[in-house]
């Protein structure tokens, strides 16, 4: 069973995504900041990280880079909800710096699950199975 780490400073988003991904069969860990997310990644096995970009203390780009340096095999999905032009530039930077996937906020829950399933399959070497099969 793949382990997913959600890193987002918005508690409502963390809770919703944890619930949805848990219901989809993932083991879910959550952190309110990049600092705490990195601490979890250093101490636990993580297959997929879902991180916001705009966070206090340590943003999602820093989080992406540090987590990839800890475990180059972890798959990272970066999300951003900044204004449309700003969001696109943040997501472009994340792509160039090693994000395995990016999504703009607001994130469609079905799309989130599908992308996490694909990344988890790539991380674990298991075939991706759609929910309900």
Helical percent range? 40-55%
Contiguous low-pLDDT stretches (5 residues minimum) are none
**How many extended strands?**
5
Largest sheet: 5 strands, parallel
N-C termini distance: 15 Å
The shape, in one word, is globular
CATH class: Alpha Beta
Widest sheet, order of strands: 2-1-3-4-5
Radius of gyration: 13 Å
What is the helix/strand order? EHEHEHEHEH
- Give the helix tally: 5
What is the number of domains? 1
Q: CATH superfamily name?
A: Response regulator
Q: In CATH terms, what is the architecture? A: 3-Layer(aba) Sandwich
Give the mean pLDDT.
90
Oligomer: single chain
CATH T-level fold name: Rossmann fold
Strand residues, percent: 15-25%
Description:
The protein is an alpha/beta fold and 133 residues long. The protein has one domain: Rossmann fold. It is 47% helix and 19% strand. The chain contains 5 helices and 5 strands, in the order βαβαβαβαβα. The model has no long low-confidence stretch (mean pLDDT 90).
Which SSEs are present, and which pair or pack?
Layout: E1 3-7, H1 11-23, E2 27-31, H2 34-43, E3 48-52, H3 60-70, E4 75-80, H4 84-96, E5 101-104, H5 109-124
Parallel strand pairs: 1-2, 1-3, 3-4, 4-5
Helix pairs in contact: 2-3
Essential attributes:
about 130 residues, alpha/beta, Rossmann fold, 5-stranded parallel beta sheet, 5 helices, 5 strands, about 20% strand, globular
Question: What's the quick description here?
Answer:
This protein has 133 residues and is an alpha/beta fold.
């Amino acid at each position: 069973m793949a382990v997913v780490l959600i890193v987002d400073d918005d508690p409502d988003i963390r809770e919703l995504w944890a619930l949805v991904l848990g219901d989809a069969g993932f083991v879910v860990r959550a952190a309110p900041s990049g600092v705490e997310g990195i601490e979890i990644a250093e101490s636990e096995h993580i297959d997929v990280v879902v991180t916001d970009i705009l966070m206090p203390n340590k943003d999602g780009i820093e989080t992406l880079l540090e987590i990839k340096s800890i475990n180059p095999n972890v798959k990272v999905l970066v999300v951003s909800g900044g204004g449309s032009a700003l969001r696109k530039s943040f997501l472009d930077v994340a792509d160039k710096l090693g994000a395995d996937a990016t999504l703009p906020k607001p994130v469609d829950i079905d799309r989130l699950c599908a992308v996490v399933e694909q990344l988890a399959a790539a991380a674990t070497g298991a075939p991706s199975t759609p929910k309900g099969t």
